[in-house]
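Blackboard transcription, Thursday session:
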Amino acid sequence: MDRTPIINIKNVSAGYSPDKIILKNINFTVYKNDFIGIIGPNGGGKSTLLKVILGLLKPLNGEISYKEKSYNKVNIGYLPQINTIDKDFPIKVIDVVLSGLMNGNPFKRFSRPEKQKAIDLLSKMGLEKYQNNPISKLSGGQMQRVYLCRAIINNPELLILDEPNTYVDKNFEKELYQHLIELNQKMAILLVTHDIGTISSVVKTIACVNEKLHYHNSNIISEEVLKTYNCPFELITHGHIPHRVLDNH
Amino acid sequence: MDRTPIINIKNVSAGYSPDKIILKNINFTVYKNDFIGIIGPNGGGKSTLLKVILGLLKPLNGEISYKEKSYNKVNIGYLPQINTIDKDFPIKVIDVVLSGLMNGNPFKRFSRPEKQKAIDLLSKMGLEKYQNNPISKLSGGQMQRVYLCRAIINNPELLILDEPNTYVDKNFEKELYQHLIELNQKMAILLVTHDIGTISSVVKTIACVNEKLHYHNSNIISEEVLKTYNCPFELITHGHIPHRVLDNH
Amino acid sequence: SNKVGNKNHIVVSILPQKQLVSQLVPDDFKVTTMVTQGNSPATYSPSPVQIKDVNDSHLYIKIGNIGFEQAWIDRFCELNPQLKVEDSSKGIEFIRGEAEIHGDHVHEGGIEPHIWTSPKTMLQVVENTKDILVHNYPELTQTIESNYITLRDSLINIDSLYTQKLNNFKGKSFLIFHPAYTYLARDYGLKQISIEHNGKEPSVKWIQKIIDFAKLENIKAIFVQEEFDKRNAEIISKELDIDIIEVHPLKEDYETEMKDLLNKLETIL
Amino acid sequence: MQEIISLLGFSFFSNAVIAGLLTSIIAGIAGTYIVSRKIVFISGGITHASFGGIGLAYFLGLNPFFGAAVFAVLSALGIEWSTQKAQVREDSAIAILWSLGMAIGIIFVFLTPGYAPNLMSFLFGNILTVTTTDIITMLALTVLLIAGITLFYRLILYIAFDQEYTKTLGFNTTIVRYIISIIIALSIVMSIRVAGIILLLSLFTIPQAIANIFTHDFKKMIFISIAFSFLGVLTGLIGSYYFNLPSGAIIIFTLIIFWSILKVTIKLFRTH
Amino acid sequence: MQEIISLLGFSFFSNAVIAGLLTSIIAGIAGTYIVSRKIVFISGGITHASFGGIGLAYFLGLNPFFGAAVFAVLSALGIEWSTQKAQVREDSAIAILWSLGMAIGIIFVFLTPGYAPNLMSFLFGNILTVTTTDIITMLALTVLLIAGITLFYRLILYIAFDQEYTKTLGFNTTIVRYIISIIIALSIVMSIRVAGIILLLSLFTIPQAIANIFTHDFKKMIFISIAFSFLGVLTGLIGSYYFNLPSGAIIIFTLIIFWSILKVTIKLFRTH
Ligand SMILES: Nc1ncnc2c1ncn2[C@@H]1O[C@H](COP(=O)(O)OP(=O)(O)OP(=O)(O)O)[C@@H](O)[C@H]1O
Ligand SMILES: Nc1ncnc2c1ncn2[C@@H]1O[C@H](COP(=O)(O)OP(=O)(O)OP(=O)(O)O)[C@@H](O)[C@H]1O
Ligand SMILES: [Mg+2]
Ligand SMILES: [Mg+2]
Ligand SMILES: [Zn+2]
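(Written on the board underneath:)
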């Protein structure tokens, strides 16, 4: 396993106003080739953690360091949980996907192969015939697939997905996870999901976020560990699963 | 089983522009005490069907009749798939929930018991401490729960839920389905979901929508029927499931 | 309310009126001008002190028909029911747009308001103002009448200067952006051509006509009032290759301004 | 203090204070609605669109204010229609009606023979020159608004928040939206006659921005806006008297100073 | 036809046509951006805010247009800042800056002794009285805009569409937004000097509404808007000549007629 760190979070506290802290004293490192499933209850702070990692929310305390000195240099792909974009905006589906390729270059123009790549990805997602549609005219699941294309098109070093299976149908969900496993060969993945069933079968490690972060260096979790670390958990509803706790936890 | 029809859809075609029909010649009746799971691939037209039933989208052809003469009289609860509301809007969580009680009365004021009911519901959803928060400050799953409260608070005759399990954690999802089964004692439910695993265990009948509508008068479906009716299905990924096809299908 | 305001306090609309009234009444009179700013309705904003002045006075002397008065005087009157509004434009032969008959009703045609810019009509304004003042302050008749003689003489002097000097230019035309000198043109036999025809936005045809006409008449300059952006006239000045000359029809110092204008007219006609 | 009380003896000043109170209430209610819906410029749009009505009334020799009111209502309906049926973005619809109304006005002014008065001045008033008629009209409007928002508070709130959902509750939201917009149009036309466009634009937005510092609740926003609005008008009027400066401008400065001070205070307070 | 060609012989008319073309290009580019972002009223806001600059310049005896440009840029920055940092709704921020700028202007005009010019006339031009200097300035601006949108097309598009995501792509979107808003501010101040606020408001929105009938693509919207805008200006200018009516108003009518005809045609066509 490649232990080159990509992102290192040290003693970070975060929240939307200084008087209401959502994440307390988080320590967390993402290494190359990681595939971390992030779970936790609604309102636990999962999306907040991702926003901190992405630099969208300034931490109230602590330090985040990236592989390269500045964040701008790390190539990150991101799929937000809730997309607040204006549905009326005049933009085509393919252009949304292409935006993933901008890579910090303000003068970016897209070459033929790049456009082809976007089309290929859209085809993979069953959306080739919608490539020139305005984004407003897609169904929920179709839109989610478009955002997924946008997140992965640039082969990022780190792929951050906030509930990527939202809205998508089961057929596609299966493909999605298959795809993520392949992608993980080339990149680290942070995956927030409530789909515990899947998590155990695709991710390598699990972290649970509920104000604090509990990192399990394994994809196997049990009721016991959940209780020990006060992970307020869904898995419990699935009954007993064998698990292993690491010493350095 | 109570076979009083609540809504009757006859030869309805629908779409967002006359040259692109999404739903073709749909015939469909919702009876009292129905619990219908609606499944189908992304972009199949599930949300469109719900919008037609709700009167939000005028059908291009065909007829919809409600139990009472006009739609205004049927008490329907609705949870939209994607909520396009403006997150900045100055409204409290509890007021969002209370809106479900308006019931066509423009002069509506809320009594104490009504407010208490909203608070009780929010507590059930684990949101009591957020009741006076502005809606903008909730996490995805919390917001989804609020919309769910809004949909069910009025004990509607018909409850229409478009992917209610979106964003919600597994703990809550389990409770949710339990709750729906209880609610079904008193009301008909139309449930759109991609969560096939659950569908078979909670719904009574299944309909699959993919341009056309295939109605299975049972909650048991198999690969075979799916193929016969060209239901382009997720279930296939779940392997063989016993099923029964009705004659009058 | 039955408050007693300051009897020796007169309100007028524009600055030339202020000078005129001040010259007629004794020094202890207070004269307030309402329009001291650009007359954009969106920005017209009197200060409380100005409004207090209106509230405080007994007499408002209108210049006659400017837009400001049409929009605001009623409000002033309602604020101060004691306020007596007098019109200093009585007896002037107004210039109107042609009346137009529209089926069942007749359009009187708006009155061209710039009566103070011609010495001849101004003489009438001064006389009217004198009459108004005498009527309102009978106890001061003597002072007012004697001040009036001086004022009238200086105006007659300007008038004769105009008549004399402009005599050679009868029938000649001058070009201006906003039609501020309509009465002056009529009274001294000149032709005023304004880009803002009747104070309205010009049309393509109108500009074309002006240009053709200006070429024909060999016009040498275009006047622009200081309160308008000169740029508005620039295109015409370029087209005809003529100068832009700034004029100040709202200056307080009437005599100087009118003499100045006469010089300008002489050089361009 | 003595001087302020004596100021109130002037009917122009007491009228201004009363008009300020009424405008604050109207701006508090209508302003909170349009700010929440992010259509602040409907005020400018409707005022300017009603210029067309003034032009037409002038051309036909009718009462200009009547023309303005009719055009205001028509343009409010036009804006709603374009947004709901013709799929034009709401801010674009406002801008289009704004320029269309002005264009109609310009044409009628052009077609009317004679020297044209500056018609816009019929629309734009000043808080210091409010007439008793204005105050009575405003009072009627204030009563209408208070009654409307009291009776239909929930319906208005929910339609503004989530029109589609409210439709599923059995309301004809389209018609309600049309009615709301007519009332908003009338409020705007009346208040502009009293306050002028510049002051109105700020009374419709700055108090709401101040309220937003404290609350994210529609009802509280209305009350806090009214309070700050009136406080601003009062302070501004007195200030403008002392500095002998135009009161509209001073009221605006006062409100902006309130906003800045509160914003900074809250920020410092929260960080502690 | 003969007559139209002879009209072009007049430099005021040919200037108007050239200014129309340049304004169409500016309105096509800047207008599509502000329409897509639903901040059409930034044009009115910035123009009126710059009134403060004119007032100050007038008070200090400086070039009024310089004052206007400085205030325009400052207010554009102020709007961005209020939206991004002070959590004020964007339309409210525009309205606040609008009234603040006007208030500053009014105060300075008031403080300057003597009869003040109608300062707004420095801001609001008419397409028939465009000067060569105006055209040169416009040309420079057009070149700047075309270069900007060509070089940074993708960045501008994506920031307008989804600022938060674009931030994660490694751009300092805050600074880019500030720069865009400065350029938009300059475009607006310049074009309003040429076209006047009313015409500008419609050139910034109606062509985009027309384009929206055909396309939902940002780039195509720019091109279609420019084309219809220029077509509208040309038809309007010629029409206003034949009917002998004010050209600004006729251009607006022409554009609205285009929009209505196309909307109805498309609707009929689609239903078949
Ligand atoms: N507003 C719209 N305008 C035009 N076309 C639309 C619109 N909304 C959806 N569509 C199209 O209609 C089809 C059906 O969409 P619908 O939202 O009903 O799908 P769905 O079955 O709910 O899918 P999902 O599982 O992704 O939610 C899709 O192909 C979509 O592209
Ligand atoms: N913009 C915001 N302003 C203030 N508080 C917020 C905001 N967004 C979220 N919160 C609060 O922060 C807490 C954590 O939210 P977060 O979105 O990180 O949860 P989450 O773990 O992603 O939940 P979910 O599974 O529902 O998406 C919640 O209690 C929520 O109420
Ligand atoms: Mg989340
Ligand atoms: Mg759907
Ligand atoms: Zn004049």
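Lecturer's comment: Chain B has two domains: 1-75+157-168+187-249, 84-155.
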